[in-house]
Design a protein that fits this description.
Elements (H helix, E strand, L loop, with lengths): L3 H14 L23 H20 L4 H18 L5 H24 L6 H18 L4 H15 L15 H11 L1
């Protein structure tokens, strides 16, 4: 279910595609990238399905550490990808989801079983919806920057091996840079 503030974000992102120069908050993750392309739909769908499946397994009691890491990866991408947008509802979802995921992690460390609490079941699907919406507007370069920022701030790799961004064809990038210069 789309959130009204996210619909506004989506409209702003679509409007940006029609402008030649895009301005965002200084130092933000979603910095201007001249005419870059969004993530390939198949790649975005792979991430979406992978995180949804991981969450389903965690809720079903058959989850693994890798499943948990997949959902935590999604939480990091949403947090770092949208934090500079200043949408209070997004911040609230991210904070609640991170707290719920941390409760699950602590339970696992204590009992060696994954249990999705009612709190987690209520909030994590909203987080995964935010991920789906975010992936519609991210470029490969933006996702790479988000992953680097997560690694820099958290001091560890953000499980990029789960979803390494596809590489853009260098010849296409050069052609677009030349055309837009």
């Amino acid at each position: 279910m789309a959130h009204p503030s996210l619909d506004a974000l989506a409209a702003r992102q679509q409007a940006k595609k029609h402008r030649t120069k895009t301005l965002v908050k200084a130092g933000g993750i979603l910095t201007p990238i001249g005419n870059s392309k969004n993530l390939p739909p198949a790649f975005a769908k792979k991430i979406e399905v992978g995180t949804d499946l991981a969450w389903f397994k965690l809720c079903s009691g058959i989850g693994t550490v890798d499943n948990y890491n997949e959902v935590a990866w999604a939480a990091n991408v949403v947090e770092f990808g949208l934090r500079d947008q200043g949408i209070p509802e997004v911040t609230e979802v991210v904070l609640e989801a991170n707290a719920a995921l941390d409760e699950m992690r602590l339970h696992f460390l204590d009992k060696q079983e994954w249990v999705a609490t009612d709190r987690a079941k209520a909030i994590v699907p909203s987080l995964l919806d935010l991920l789906t919406q975010l992936l519609q507007f991210l470029s490969i370069n933006q996702l790479e920057r988000i992953l680097k920022e997560i690694e820099r701030e958290r001091g560890q790799a953000p499980l990029a091996h789960h979803h390494p961004p596809p590489k853009a064809a260098p010849s296409q990038d050069r052609k677009e840079r030349t055309r837009n210069a």
